[in-house]
């Protein structure tokens, strides 16, 4: 326990120093030796600046208090994993700046489970929402863990979809794991804390969510994944910070293609131009993961390229002709009832009745009054 509390104390320093803290501790001779160094010793022996040594010294407190803090973690259902522990994620050991330790509510990702990070804009489009649900849900059903930041928008949507599909997801926070950020994702947060899922942070419990803390945590999101998918991103989106980190870490970057005229897809289009792999289906992602053929469950919903744009599954072919006409007009992008009726060559009132029946069959989904998409996306 005694040595452990010093490791815990060092981990609490990660908020103010996100450099190679591990190297400094090793140079000092261990966490306890590092704690016992004076500010002058730190400057002379470790070769750090006076400003940094002053910061470390200012964080020292009575060891009895540190021990009480550490013991309180268990009561709050928070575990601490040091970088030297056997259960510290292997994926994080070799990234350029690995965290000294991690605080966890729930569990860490299984090392033997393939993982995909799904990220994107907080203010996403309806298309972005549908794609986040699609990849989050379908990948989870294939046994892929979904990694993200629990942010409002693409991140949270993908994670919620993964959980709804019975899969596992892990949120990497830019604050303490005891803080729900954003607060409106409280329901998602609670689900992520149990049933084999997890909320993870290098920041100590009680650390508030501040803008400066989010870019550093992105290296953990990309570090924990095998493949990173960008669903939507503006040309200068903060999402691109995570992409840069993923590239530095040797991770595969995939991008959901978007419309050329959509500002929310400008960053995605740029990434495709730079050589990112297009994420056009779950199968394309599984191929990058080296998983090859998809499960029987996914084979039942596998589409040709033509079918990705228009739904004409075997189930639809068994429908009455009039219902097929309407079903064939449903795409990934929302279409209003007038457009669907016109394309199907029937009155709006008739199309509305048929769409109601298709909703009951799970073939159509009304995403807002009068606008419909394919019902098999989420």
Structure description:
The strands form two sheets. A nine-stranded mixed beta sheet has the order 1-2-6-5-4-3-7-8-9, sandwiched between helices. Strands 10-12-11 form a three-stranded antiparallel beta sheet. α8 (126-141) packs parallel to α9 (154-164) and α11 packs across α12. The longest helix is centred in the middle third of the chain and has 16 residues, at 126-141. It folds into three domains: 1-75; 115-299, Rossmann fold, CATH 3.40.50.450; 305-374, Winged helix-like DNA-binding domain superfamily/Winged helix DNA-binding domain (Arc Repressor Mutant, subunit A). The protein has 378 residues and is of the alpha/beta class. It is built from 20 helices and twelve strands. The relative contact order is 0.09.
């Amino acid at each position: 326990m005694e040595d452990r509390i010093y490791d815990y104390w060092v981990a609490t320093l990660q908020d103010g120093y996100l450099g190679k803290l591990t190297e400094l501790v090793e140079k000092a001779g261990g966490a306890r030796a590092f704690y016992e160094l004076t500010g002058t010793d730190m400057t002379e022996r470790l070769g750090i600046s006076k400003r940094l040594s002053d910061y470390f010294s200012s964080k020292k407190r009575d060891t009895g208090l540190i021990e009480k803090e550490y013991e309180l973690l268990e009561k709050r259902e928070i575990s601490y994993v040091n970088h030297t522990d056997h259960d510290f994620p292997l994926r994080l050991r070799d990234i350029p700046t690995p965290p000294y330790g991690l605080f966890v509510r729930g569990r860490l990702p299984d090392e033997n489970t393939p993982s995909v990070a799904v990220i994107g804009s907080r203010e996403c489009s309806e298309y972005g929402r549908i794609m986040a649900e699609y990849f989050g849900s379908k990948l989870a059903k294939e046994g892929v863990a979904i990694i993200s930041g629990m942010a409002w928008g693409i991140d949270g949507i993908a994670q919620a979809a993964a959980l709804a599909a019975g899969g596992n997801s892990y949120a990497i926070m830019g604050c303490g794991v005891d803080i729900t950020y954003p607060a409106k994702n409280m329901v998602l947060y609670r689900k992520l804390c149990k049933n084999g899922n997890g909320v993870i942070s290098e920041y100590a419990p009680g650390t508030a969510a501040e803008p400066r803390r989010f870019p550093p945590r992105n290296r953990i999101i990309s570090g924990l994944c095998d493949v990173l998918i960008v669903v939507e991103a503006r040309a200068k989106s903060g999402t691109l910070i995570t992409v840069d980190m993923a590239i530095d870490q040797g991770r595969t970057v995939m991008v959901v293609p978007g419309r050329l005229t959509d500002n929310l897809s400008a960053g995605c289009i740029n990434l495709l131009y730079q050589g990112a792999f297009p994420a056009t289906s779950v199968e394309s992602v599984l191929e990058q993961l080296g998983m090859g053929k998809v499960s029987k469950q996914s084979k039942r919903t596998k589409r040709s390229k033509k079918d990705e744009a228009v739904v004409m599954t075997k189930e639809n072919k068994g429908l009455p002709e009039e219902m097929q006409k309407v079903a064939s007009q449903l795409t990934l992008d929302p279409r209003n009832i007038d457009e669907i009726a016109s394309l199907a060559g029937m009155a709006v009132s008739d199309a509305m009745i048929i769409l109601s029946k298709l909703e009951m069959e799970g073939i159509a989904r009304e995403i807002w009054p009068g606008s419909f998409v394919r019902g098999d996306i989420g």
